[in-house]
Each structure stands twice: as structure tokens, then as C-alpha cells.
Write a structure and sequence with these properties.
414 residues; alpha/beta; TIM Barrel; five-stranded parallel sheet; three-stranded parallel sheet; 46% helix
């Protein structure tokens, strides 16, 4: 996987394609960290970058965004969250899949489809409000065209098939609305199948209705997303689908033993045989099995210190202490651990089956050092270059792998 770039290309800021093979070559693995990061930035900006899962739509809903007025202006740099246009451009992000997230409670209260429609309209409103910066994308071709125009594409995936409710025709309905993948379940078992977070095991995998949903998704051209499903549901999907599937924001269970939300090695191998893609989640608890224990220990210390000193978190003295303590006891994993997950997937099934699925705006403040928001993808690319990944490898991770699956699903449906 080792890659080389000419000295003159680096000095002149040219792309790899413009390099003369007769000129002196540099090994990415031996250049300084500073030089490697500059190479990574160049690759990030010259390559289409797709992220399988960004939770901006629900962040807009929580922040008060409505169809009548824009509270959250992500066309400019925002104070909170992990995504906005300036940071996306800084990090080289071109096509974040907008997560149309439907909390599991809507399975009991009703209204999942209504919420999905609302979040879809909010997402489309971004492109309508700032057409010079954002554009909707319903196919890989759309993303390529938007990339050439310098716009950030907004493809959409629905997180939780509860939006289908009990009506199979809603699969085609959501395809018409622009949904290009559906995460079958979320935090609880639903009408489609069992969730990795739920211990009820309502169906023992896919329900009979869920099997119809998967077939209908194959038929209309919506990618099946197996993030969040139970192991049994995953294997039922593998037996049923006639096209590749994705895990839009999952990581390797090897690093998080007992965390069923991630995929174990056998599941990863099955995904490889299916020709699918696992898009690595950046969240702390997804990449580091000890993260939750460390955060609990730090939280307990702070609570005890506040009690002993009869202070609340809002007191200025407490704020100073907490900031200092957190700096001295950094609980967050490093960007290198995300690369470890990628390494492991590649070792199991090859470079053609891995991508980025950050879960930005969805995993709170648990993100690793060096990957705190969408401006920081070059840090991960630099780490991969350091490990010997080639530019071609990185292009596959950034977009070619998921494009392959997406196009296969489109072709099968057509």
C-alpha cells in the first residue's frame, strides 16, 4: 500500500496525477509529520469525500430550526456541533449523508413518518437557502457534479426504518423523497427486526414484514444499512439481499468486546463476501472499549470533589478546577485508534470494503483527539499515509467503495 509523491509536486502544490515518474520520489511513511499533513490536506481537497452518517438534521430540529426560519445557520461557522460549511470545506468533506434520525420512542407514540418528512424538508431547505454552498444529491453522479461545482452534497439516509411504519409502499415513497439508505432499526426492536441495543429479541432477527422491506429496498434502489441491528438481524439480511449492503456508522467489535452495536470479525467477513462496506464510526465508545470506564471515573471524581467543596458545576472556582482536571486526565482516544479499526477491517476483507461513517453531531463530545469535527479529516488521512496507505487506497475509503455499492444497488433496481 506504500505510496510516493515527487518533491517538485509537493513544492508546487500539484496533484499526484501531474507528477513526473522520473523525478525523485518521497515515501509518505518517512516524511515529517508536518509534510505528511500537508499531503493529507491536498488529498482531502482533491478527492471526493463521503461520510456515511452526519446527524445535522436532528441537531437542527433540537436547535429550533423550522421551515419558516433558520435558527441554525450552518452556511457559516457555528459555535457548537461538529458540522458546518466552512469546516466541511476546510476538512475536504464533500458528501455527508444527512441522517434522517427517528428516535425509537416514535415507534410507540406514532408519528415516525411525519418526523421523517419534516427532517427531509429541513435538509432540502439547506440547499434551497444556500444554493451556492449546498446541493441535494440522489446519486453518485450528483455528488460528482456538485464536487466539480465546489458545493457540499447532501445525500440522505433514514436512521431507523420505523418511518416505514407498517406500510410497505412507504419504501418507494421515501426513495421518491430522496432517501438512499435506510438503517433498519435503532435503539429498540421495531416492526422490521431486532436492534443491537435491545435485549428483547422480539423477532429473533428480521420479522416477516422486515424481510419484505429488505426485498422492497433492493427493488426500488435503497441501500440496506445494517448499523444498529442485532447479529441475528444482520445474518438474516445477508441471506436475503441480492445486492451489497452498508454499515453506515459502525466499527470493529474486536476493540470493544461485548458491544454488539459494532461488528465482529465473522460479520465483517460476511459483509466482505457480500461486497459491502463498513463505514467506521468515530465515537469514543465505538472505537475504544475502555472509554466509558475512563469517563465514568473522571465524572465520579468531579462529582465527589464538588460535594466535598460544597460547590456546583456553575461556580467559577469549580469551572477552573474542572477544566484543569479534564486537561490533566484526557479520557478521549486518539485519531490513531480510528486508523486501527480501518487497519483491522482491511486485514480481514481488504481495502475495498471500508469507509468513513463518523456519526458527527450524533456522538456528543466523545470524539477522539484529532477528530473533533469535520475540519479534521486530514488528520486521519495523514495517519493512514503514515501507515503506508496509498492515495488510491484513500480514494477508495473516501468514496469509491461506497459509490460501488450505491451504483450496484441502483443498477439492480433499474
Amino acid at each position: 500500500m506504500k505510496n510516493y509523491l515527487t518533491i517538485s509536486a509537493f513544492l508546487l502544490g500539484l496533484s499526484v496525477s501531474s507528477c513526473n515518474s522520473n523525478q525523485e520520489k518521497i515515501d509518505y511513511t518517512t516524511v515529517s509529520d508536518e509534510e505528511r499533513l500537508e499531503y493529507a490536506k491536498t488529498i482531502a481537497h482533491e478527492t471526493i469525500m463521503v461520510d456515511g452518517h452526519v446527524d445535522l438534521p436532528y441537531r437542527m430540529k433540537v436547535g429550533g430550526f423550522t421551515l419558516q426560519r433558520e435558527i441554525l445557520d450552518v452556511s457559516t461557522r457555528t459555535d457548537g456541533g461538529n458540522f458546518d460549511f466552512p469546516r466541511a470545506k476546510q476538512g475536504g468533506l464533500d458528501a455527508p449523508f444527512m441522517s434522517i434520525y427517528l428516535p425509537s420512542r416514535y415507534q410507540q407514540t406514532g408519528g415516525a413518518k411525519i418526523l421523517a418528512d419534516s427532517l427531509i424538508l429541513m435538509t432540502k431547505r439547506l440547499a434551497e437557502t444556500w444554493p451556492e454552498k449546498f446541493a441535494m444529491a440522489y446519486s453518485p453522479d450528483d455528488i460528482e457534479n456538485n464536487f466539480k461545482a465546489g458545493k457540499v452534497s447532501l445525500p440522505m439516509g433514514m436512521e431507523n426504518g420505523a418511518g416505514i411504519e407498517n406500510n410497505l409502499s412507504n419504501v418507494a415513497y421515501f426513495h421518491e423523497k430522496g432517501i438512499r439508505y435506510i438503517t433498519l432499526t435503532h435503539g429498540k426492536d421495531n416492526l422490521i427486526g431486532d436492534s443491537s441495543y435491545d435485549t428483547t429479541r422480539t423477532h429473533g432477527g428480521l420479522s416477516e414484514f422486515g424481510k419484505q422491506v429488505v426485498k422492497e429496498m433492493n427493488k426500488v434502489g435503497i441501500m440496506v444499512d445494517i448499523s444498529h441491528v442485532s447479529d441475528d438481524t444482520f445474518y438474516d439480511v445477508m441471506e436475503l439481499t441480492n445486492v451489497p449492503v452498508i454499515a453506515s456508522h459502525s466499527s470493529s467489535r474486536k476493540f470493544t468486546p461485548g458491544f454488539e452495536r459494532n461488528m465482529n470479525d465473522d460479520m465483517v467477513k460476511a459483509l466482505g463476501k457480500n461486497n459491502g462496506v463498513i463505514m467506521i464510526n468515530f465515537g469514543g465508545s465505538f472505537i475504544d472499549g475502555d472509554y466509558n470506564e475512563r469517563t465514568a471515573s473522571v465524572r465520579e471524581h468531579i462529582v465527589n470533589w464538588l460535594a466535598q467543596n460544597e460547590l456546583s458545576r456553575s461556580d467559577s472556582t469549580a469551572q477552573v478546577y474542572i477544566k484543569k482536571y479534564l486537561a490533566e486526565h484526557n479520557v478521549f482516544p486518539d485519531v490513531s485508534l480510528v486508523a486501527d479499526h480501518i487497519d483491522h477491517i482491511v486485514s480481514l476483507i481488504g481495502i475495498e470494503h471500508v469507509g468513513f461513517g463518523s456519526d458527527f453531531d450524533g456522538v456528543g463530545d466523545s470524539l477522539p483527539n484529532g477528530l473533533k469535527d469535520v475540519s479534521m479529516y486530514p488528520n486521519l488521512i495523514a495517519e493512514l499515509l503514515k501507515r503506508g496507505y496509498s492515495r488510491e487506497d484513500i480514494e477508495k475509503i473516501c468514496y469509491k467503495n461506497v459509490f460501488r455499492v450505491w451504483k450496484a444497488v441502483e443498477e439492480a433496481a433499474s
